[in-house]
Amino acid sequence: MADLELSYSATSSALSRPLLDGAVKIEGVKFKAEEAHGMDKLSRRMLSLEFDVAEMSIATFVKGKEGGLPLVALPLFTSGRRFLQKGFLVARKAGMHDLSELKGKRMGVSQYWMSSSVWQRLVLRQMHGVMPEDVTWVTTRGERMEGLRFPLTVKIIQDKSNRTPLDLMRDGQIDACMSPGAPQPGTQADQLSDVAMPAYADGLAAQKEYFVKTGIFPIMHVTVMKEKLVADYPWLPARICDAYREAKKQAQVPSPAAGSHGSDDDVEEMRAIMGDDPWPYGIRSNRRPLEAFVEAAYNQGLIGRPMKLEDLFTGALPEIYQ
Question: All domains of the chain, ordered by start, with CATH?
Answer without folding.
Answer: 4-81+217-321 (3.40.190.10), 85-214 (3.40.190.10)
